[in-house]
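Narrative of activities, Objective 1.

The group set out to show that a structural description can be obtained from nothing but a protein's sequence at a throughput compatible with the screening campaign. Below is one input-output pair from the validation batch, recorded exactly as produced.
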Amino acid sequence: MREHISYSELKIWNECPYKHKLKYLDRVNAFKGNEFTIFGTAIHDTCEKTLLTGSTRPENYFTLSFLKQVEELKLIGVPLDVTLLAQMEKQGRSLSTKVLPALGDHFGKYELISTEEQLYLPLTSHPQYFKGFIDLVIKCGDTYHVIDWKTCSWGWDARRKTDKILSYQLTLYKHFFSTKHGIDPKNIETHFALLKRTAKKNEVEFVRITSGDKKIKNALNLLNKALYNIRKNTTIKNRMSCSRCEFYKTKHCQ
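Output recorded for this entry:
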């Protein structure tokens, strides 16, 4: 049994318990990365460094992180589309300059509380810990805003903005951030910050996610259900999710 569980692990288990077994118990890693993971990581790195340093040239941070990851994937033989990479570098340099202004425009005057804040707290119903990293926490007045950066192309449709399982990431972050610091959950709001690679306007969009007591309870129930089944070695395949699975029709999942 693993010592901790993260939201990412919970999401994979909810998608397919057998896929969870392959990734987290058998340690099979079929996916090494691609152009989109390079872009996402570079933007995340840039947001963190810019917030911490107050740099007026975030595009330089982006390029350094972007090219470093390109080289790392090339070294392990991951094929990459050179034309797409060139487009992404240009898009990322432009997008990186818009993040901090958008943050100020949306929230007004704010206090930086933390970037990449680690959550590692014990669970009450299981001997494991919940592990996570909050991209950004700011404070406006008495309200804390927990923010998670999400890179995308043009944005999210209504279905994705209201996806229950996706929203549970911020629901769990809110609960454990509140527990860690002893802050009343009513004083914590949560947001996804959409960083849009191909959008022509509104390149940075904040999507507020509400999480009351009932939703927090439902998210924790799903977490407990996952841990119970993982401990019982229940690894049923969810064949409804096969078409988008990295293990589909490989030697690991015939």
